[in-house]
Amino acid sequence: xxxxxxxxxxxxxxxxxxDGEDRGRFEAHLRDGCRVCETAVLEYGKSLASLAAELPxxxxxxxxxxxxxxxxxxxxxxxxxxxxxxxxxxxxxxALVVVYLGLTLIALxxxxxxxxxxxxxxxxxxxxxxxxxxxxxxxxxxxVVLDGLKPSPAARGxxxxxxxxxxxxxATGLPAIPSDKTYQLWAIAGGTPLxxxxxxVDPKGAASLRVKPPAGVEKVEVFAVTLEPAGGLAKxxxxxxxxxKAP
Length: 247
Hints:
Number of helices: 6
Strand content: 15-25%
Order of helices and strands: HHHHHHEEEEEEEE
Structural class: alpha+beta
Shape: elongated
Helix content: 40-55%
Number of domains: 2
Distance between the termini: 61 Å
């Protein structure tokens, strides 16, 4: 649905005349964060209340008034004052309250979804940190030092490698690269390079990477870093920046 159609639905929503699929679609659009439509609904609601307040007082149907009085247990004399606002104005005010409550609930729903997303992200990060700590603290973990090669002799890398759990790789001193390139880490086993992931560096040339163990590989002999096209390749093609033999 184009945004122009959503804009047309805003007036009907403010009047409470939107239901069914159209109402569901419009409220989903508001939950997606459309400030233009939120503002339009509020302005329509204010205009409705303002217009209704200027109308001459109109009494509600006798049956409605009598039912309301009977429900609250009052008498007719105590009930006269509330009707001075006018039936139309009262309805408009109620409609405006409903609009504000509806937008508030939508905003709260959107904020709740954001918080749930943030909590899920934090849980994932905690799980990753726990994996790394387990690798670093295991007596079976090997430490592989990667030295800088000709393209970046000052660069250094270090891999904490556990045959079953995988590893944690860090690098420093790598040069910045263009956006169409990426660094790619390789685990070389039996003379075959296997991709261990791609990574970028921060402005200081540092990077870190959680590495999963290659399937079916008993021992990795060498870890190396090459420069490859963005996204990485199945086999290395670019210059080698770091390399180190596993113990």
